[in-house]
Amino acid sequence: xxxxxxxxxxxxxxxxxxxxxxxxxxxxxxxxxxxxxxxxxxxxxxxxxxxxxxxxxxxxxxxxxxxxxxxxxxxxxxxxxxxxxxxxxxxxxxxxxxxxxxxxxxxxxxxxxxxxxxxxxxxxxxxxxxxxxxxxxxxxxxxxxxxxxxxxxxxxxxxxxxxxxxxxxxxxxxxxxxxxxxxxxxxxxxxxxxxxxxxxxxxxxxxxxxxxxxxxxxxxxxxxxxxxxxxxxxxxxxxxxxxxxxxxxxxxxxxxxxxxxxxxxxxxxxxxxxxxxxxxxxxxxxxxxxxxxxxxxxxxxxxxxxxxxxxxxxxxxxxxxxxxxxxxxxxxxxxxxxxx
Length: 340
Hints:
Layout: E1 2-6, H1 10-21, E2 28-33, H2 37-47, E3 51-52, H3 55-60, E4 67-70, H4 77-86, E5 90-94, H5 101-113, E6 118-121, H6 128-133, E7 142-148, H7 160-176, E8 180-188, E9 197-204, E10 209-215, E11 222-229, E12 232-237, E13 242-248, H8 254-264, E14 273-276, H9 285-299, H10 307-330, H11 334-337
Parallel strand pairs: 1-2, 1-4, 2-3, 4-5, 5-6, 7-10
Antiparallel strand pairs: 7-11, 8-9, 9-10, 11-12, 12-13, 13-14
Helix pairs in contact: 4-5, 5-10, 7-10
C-alpha cells in the first residue's frame, strides 16, 4: 500500500506519523505535498521522503500511489481530491469534505466514476467511546453536545461550525438517523473574522431534538456528548474516551424508589437506577480512522464513514450558517456579523 499526504500542517503531520507507524503492516509512506518550502524541508528531513509543491507534480512523478490523505485547508479540498481521484488514487479527505455542496457532489461523482474510495475525515466516528456505544443504541430522543477549545490560529479559514461543531453534527446525524426538520442558531465572531462561538438547536423529523454548543475561545477544553433514550441516559467524554450509561429498571417508579431509598438512607443511590460503564477498547481515533480507510482501499468495500454522510454533515453545517445570519439580522447584529 503506497500512500501520500497532501498538506503537512498541524493535522497533516499527524497523518504522516500514523502512516509511518503502519510500515510494519505493509504501508509505505512514499511522498508528501506541501507548497511551503520551510515545511517541505522539515518533512523531508523527518521522514526521508520527497515533498512536492503541488498535487500535479506528485502525480507526474509516477509514484504508483494507492491512496492519499488530503489535509490542506478546506477551500482546497476539492482541487486536491479531484486530481487524485481522477488519477485513480483513493482519498481520505479531512473534514469538512469540501467548502460547498456543489464541490462535494462533484467529488462524489468523480469517486463513483473512477470507482475510488472517498472517505471524509470525521474523526469522532472512530473514537473508542463512540464505537463502544453505537451498537447499543435504541432510540435517542435528545442530545446535548459541548465542544469547547482554547483559541489557536489553526483552521481560521472556516468558522467554528465547520471547524469544531461538524464533528458532533456528524455523530448526531448518524445516531439520530432521521431527516432534519428545523434549525435555529446563533453565532458570533469574537477573536477572528469568522464565527468563533455558536449555539444551535436542531429538530429532526422523528421528534428527536439536539442542542449543540461549540466555541474556540474557551478557557477550557471540553469534548462531551450526552443523550437520552427511553429509560436510559448516555454520557460520552470524547477526550477521555469514556462512556457512562444510566438505565432505569423496567419496574421503576419514583414512589417505590423513594420508599426504598429512604429505608436504605440512599447509601447506594436511587433504587431502580443502574450505573454502568461499557467496555471501551483502547485506540487512537486517527489511527483507527486511517486503518479503516486503508481496509476499505484493500477490500474495495464501502468505508465506515461515506462521502454522502460527509455531505450530509456539510449540508447541516451550511444550514446552520444561514440560520446564524438570519438571527444576526433579527438581533440587529448584521454589521458585527458581516465579516463572517
